[in-house]
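DM from R.C. (forwarded with permission)

"hey, sorry to bug you on a friday — could you get me a structure for this? deadline for the figure draft is monday and I only need the backbone to look sensible"
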Amino acid sequence: MIEVRPYDALGHANHGWLDAKHHFSFANYYDPNRINWGALRVWNDDTIAPGTGFGTHPHENMEIITYVREGAITHQDSLGNKGRTVAGDVQVMSAGTGIRHSEHNLEDVTTRIFQIWIMPNRAGHAPSWGTRAFPKNDRSGKFVTLASGYQNDGNALPIHTDARVLGATLRKNESTEYQLGIERLAYLVVAKGSVEIEGKIVGERDGAAISDTDGLKVRALADAEVILVDTTP
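My reply, with the result:
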């Protein structure tokens, strides 16, 4: 089963410096039918103006994955970490028992990110942060795991949850498959281009909530970049 959630139908908040689209209920946007998708709690499509960003604020007991689509984001936190993550790369912050952080666009161009929150498998993990480059050529024509709660997932950034975050880049008419498992849930967002999944068209920045699907086949209708979360119900 696939439910397409068009970009134009998502929750929206424009703060001037931040233009945000919400796939799930967040802040002042509330939809009782879109609180979460299994352990996936937040998927925000954020556009951040140059020289602005999120000031220092706290989190706890949440796995927060940032996928940079354009520009770059600079992170600083109460653990002493500081780093810059550029387009195509990923950062992960495990809030655990508590962390304070800021995220700023220090560039002279607009930054666009997907901010993904996944609930941890338990409360009380030690907080941590990390970033890693994932060259798009390495995920050409296939899904590559970017962040994972499973130890055998290669170079993926570790997260404390029974979930994976994956990315793929596809040429027009190219297809790839992912073995989801009938008991799992998936949420897919097209960062660029458009794709077809089981006869459903998912356009640029649309979301697709996927359930009761064992094997997932994604075909690009145009050159496409897709991000997928595979999670527990």
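R.C.: lifesaver. The first strand starts at residue 2 and ends at 5.
me: no worries. The two ends are 14 Å apart (CA to CA).
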